[in-house]
Design a protein that fits this description.
globular, 3 domains, alpha+beta, 5-stranded mixed beta sheet, Alpha-Beta Plaits
Length: 422
């Protein structure tokens, strides 16, 4: 009697991997039916058991364990989800603990990239933001970098794309500016891909490559250069920041050099990530689980950012006024003023009175201005202000009671404005 097994297999990156595994399983049982989707093998056999499946997979050069093999699909799926949720909880706990220890969220400290930046400064900015790059595209880097040669091809493709895009951006100048709605849509679209990719890495959900655009089907070991080149089009915070800097240079050469230096800065971490994976191959499944959980968490966060950019996360129910920092109304009742202090973690929540013009002052110390919080926007109150060191004045008129969102330009840092009335 045939039994059905669901086995999670570590090390699958392409169709060749799947064919190799299938052939070794069939060597153990020529009548076995094998279907591999993502990194999950569905095996129907009247001969094989869990131990025999492990031996066949290991002979093929891949990894699995009896603990990763289930006959009940729902039980296996629950195991996978619980495992990823546990890792995600640990990541969130560590981030919370680190924030408590140092007083701010280190992931929000993105260096400022402006028109005064020198090429060495751009290299340093690239290195500091490469930690962000690992969360965004580290999984692709690992998938294609199975050797020093493929790692070199991947990063060469990535740097070439950065350079070309920087040159084009510099040549076109301000015509490449992205408005809030388009940026929100791009962030939301990317978040869906990140969630799907993270769930696929975790083995919870499989991405059928045949249904993806042709370009994405080439993200395989044999196309490391193409994968790296396509990676350069990801609309993530550091890349968008650098592209806007390239625009400000109004020069093909300067724009290209700027993004090339930024790309060189990301190389130590990105290349090191692949080397670390290759040197510690036995721990690859452990790192993959951590990266999957991180990508899923980042995907959820980016979904909220995209919805904020499109205006879906905005007005909400009112709160008690005593819980808010309240704007001071002038003696004649014709204006109100609120001052806040800029921090790495963004801005502050505050309350203003309906129908009275607001003078909103953000006091910004130069050391606390980052590439993320240096531009503050609000769809509801129609302001978009780039912050400089010192006092930054923003004026708006609240006309409707409610709670509204204002944020940084990439919607990572969000705070609230509560509009009350008598």
């Amino acid at each position: 009697m045939n039994k059905t097994y669901y086995a999670k297999i570590e090390g699958i990156y392409c169709d060749h991997c799947r064919r190799t595994i299938s052939s070794f399983i069939k060597k153990a049982d020529s009548d076995a039916a094998v279907k591999i989707s993502g990194n999950i093998a569905k095996i129907k056999s009247s001969v094989l058991n869990e131990s025999a499946i492990v031996q066949a997979v290991e002979k093929a050069g891949y990894q699995t364990k009896e603990a990763w093999i289930f006959q009940n699909f729902n039980k296996w799926k629950a195991f996978q989800i619980l495992e990823i949720l546990s890792i995600a909880f640990v990541i969130l706990a560590l981030r919370f603990l680190l924030k408590k220890l140092i007083g701010y969220d280190i992931l929000n400290v993105i260096p400022v990239i402006d028109s005064k930046a020198s090429l060495p400064a751009l290299f340093i900015a690239g290195f500091l933001t490469s930690f962000h790059c690992i969360g965004m595209c580290g999984a692709i880097n690992i998938a294609v970098s199975k050797s020093g040669r493929t790692s070199l091809l991947y990063n060469t493709g990535r740097l070439l794309c950065y350079t070309l895009v920087g040159g084009i951006a510099g040549a076109l100048g301000k015509t490449l500016a992205v408005n809030q709605t388009v940026l929100g849509f791009l962030v939301l679209l990317l978040s869906f891909f990140m969630l799907a990719f993270g769930l696929s890495m975790a083995g919870i959900f499989s991405i059928p490559l045949k249904h993806l655009p042709h370009g994405f089907q080439k993200l395989r070991t044999s196309s490391a250069f193409a994968a790296g080149f396509l990676n350069g089009f990801m609309p993530c915070t550091p890349l968008v920041t650098m592209q806007l800097y390239a625009v400000s240079t109004a020069s093909f050469v300067q724009g290209a050099l700027s993004m090339l230096m930024f790309g060189f800065g990301t190389l130590p971490m990105m290349a090191g990530l692949a080397m670390f994976q290759n040197l510690f191959a036995r721990k690859r499944i452990f790192f993959q689980k951590i990266l999957a959980a991180f990508v899923i968490l980042l995907g959820f966060a980016m979904t909220l950012r995209g919805l904020t950019g499109l205006g879906f996360v905005s007005q909400s129910s009112a709160h008690q006024l005593k819980n808010w920092k309240v704007a001071e109304i002038s003696e004649d009742g014709k204006s109100q003023k609120i001052e806040i202090q800029l921090s790495y973690d963004g801005y502050e929540n505050f309350a203003v009175k309906k129908g009275i013009p607001v003078e909103f002052v953000i006091n910004a110390e130069e050391d606390y201005i980052t590439g993320c919080n240096n531009r503050v926007i609000s769809r509801d109150f129609n302001f978009d202000t780039t912050l400089t060191a010192g006092r930054n004045n923003i004026n708006f008129l609240p006309q409707k009671k409610g709670t509204y969102i204002y944020s940084c330009w990439m919607y990572m840092l969000k705070n609230k404005i509560y509009v009350y009335e008598d």
